[in-house]
Amino acid sequence: MIYEFQGYTPVVHESSFVHPLAAVTGNVIIGKNCYIGPGAAIRGDWGQIILEDGVNVQENCTVHMFPGKSITLKESAHVGHGAIIHGANLGKNCLIGMNTVIMDDAEIGDESIVGAMAFVKAETKIPQRSLVVGNPAKVVKQVSDEMLAWKTKGTQLYQKLPADCYESLREVVPLREVPKDLPTQEEAYKTLRDTFKK
Known about the structure:
Pfam families: Hexapep. GO terms for molecular function: transferase activity. This protein is 14% helix and 32% strand. The strands form 3 sheets. Strands 1, 2, 4, 6, 8, 9, 11, 14 and 17 form a 9-stranded parallel sheet that branches. It has an 8-stranded mixed sheet with strand order 3-5-7-10-13-16-19-20. The protein is an alpha/beta fold. It is built from 2 helices and 20 strands. The chain is globular. A hairpin with a 4-residue loop joins strand 19 and strand 20. The relative contact order is 0.11. The termini are far apart.
């Protein structure tokens, strides 16, 4: 669902995928290889929202701001299910955990990881490569090279997802029973804990 608002029409690069059950409104610019999941709302009615190349905004996320503000989600920013980004700017290759809330004029540094259900207060400045958790959110340590590599691999899956959706996503009538030859899906990615188990 792509909506013009007060003369502003969203701009979406042809390589990006906006799910039909997402809503993108007004002054929104979406770069290359971005994924916008079902239930996401990116509402550029009161200011501009820029998603640079390779950003993903997953299911049931909200991206919005106070009137007159504009925000940027920089290249390869990764916004987990149910997160709210309200008037905040996200650095390159950062990860925003599921159901996190990031408030107005907050700045998340490049390559930072914000844990699930964190609450980042307005005007908070998170330095580059910080691991952030809690309510209110606090920096607890630096993101290691191993953690960053794990995050980057997960984001690469989402950067491939738009092409996969264009190739195979289609509305269908459901089956009424499980097929006997239903294939098992491959394990393409492990949790952080499983990735570093000795």
